[in-house]
Amino acid sequence: LFPPVLQVAPETKAVMKWLRSIPFVLSASLHGGELVVTYPYDYSRHPLEEKMFSPTPDEKMFKMLAKAYADAHPVISDRSELRCGGNFVKRGGIINGAEWYSFTGGMADFNYLHTNCFEITVEVGCEKFPLEEELFTIWHENRDSLLNYMEMVHRGIKGIVSDKFGNPIKNARISVRGIQHDVTTGN
């Protein structure tokens, strides 16, 4: 089964075009209303299942990325179950998106399936719409996590794919044995 076809807004089309034109490799989407870090897939392979674990071929990498953010966050890494996000404490503050709740059209899934970019979703605080006076605290709670996450861009394989003359090869397909998800080189 496939997700239903959705109307794509012009601004969404513009972002999709932008993502395909620049070889991003790491991204985070910041949301509010909970304290947890989610990773793809956000859409369950079984659309009739509300909360079904739906891993990508890069499950280990996504867990490492989500954990890098969560472990550096002073509240997400707090083991207290009396805070919002308490039901994620035993999971270390991270969860597969579809296992939390399944939805179609998410940027993390799009990035993984259609670009080289690995994206996590960070629920940065308990309030969906925090008050202005709460923003400074939320920023400080997330600053080190964001920096730690950005440093993760240096993990994994990186380099230049070139021909025998040393010229970069555009759109070369790179495969890793055991992971059925290829990436391509940039410009």
The CATH topology of the largest domain is given as Aminopeptidase
* Major beta sheet summary: 4 strands, mixed
**What is the overall shape?**
globular
Gyration radius (Cα, Å) is 18 Å
> What is the mean pLDDT?
90
Number of domains: 2
> What's the total helix number?
5
N→C terminal distance: 35 Å
- The fourth-level CATH homologous superfamily of the largest domain is Zn peptidases
Widest sheet: strand ordering: 1-4-2-3
Hey, roughly how much beta strand do the residues contain? Answer: 15-25%
Low-pLDDT segments, ≥5 res: none
Name the helicity range: 25-40%
Number of beta-strand segments: 6
**Helix/strand structural class:** alpha/beta
CATH architecture title of the largest domain: 3-Layer(aba) Sandwich
What is the H/E string?
HEEHEHHEHEE
CATH class of the largest domain: Alpha Beta
GO biological process, one term: peptide metabolic process
GO molecular function: metallocarboxypeptidase activity; zinc ion binding
Pfam families: Peptidase_M14 (PF00246)
Protein name: CBPZ Carboxypeptidase
Features:
187 residues, alpha/beta, Aminopeptidase, four-stranded mixed β-sheet, two-stranded antiparallel sheet, 5 helices, 18% strand, metal-binding, protease, glycoprotein
Question: What does this protein look like?
Answer:
By secondary structure, the chain is an alpha/beta fold. It has two domains: 22-156, Zn peptidases (Aminopeptidase, 3-Layer(aba) Sandwich), CATH 3.40.630.10; 158-186, no CATH class. It is built from five helices and six strands. The strands form two sheets. Strands 1-4-2-3 form a four-stranded mixed sheet, sandwiched between helices. Strands 5-6 form a two-stranded antiparallel sheet.
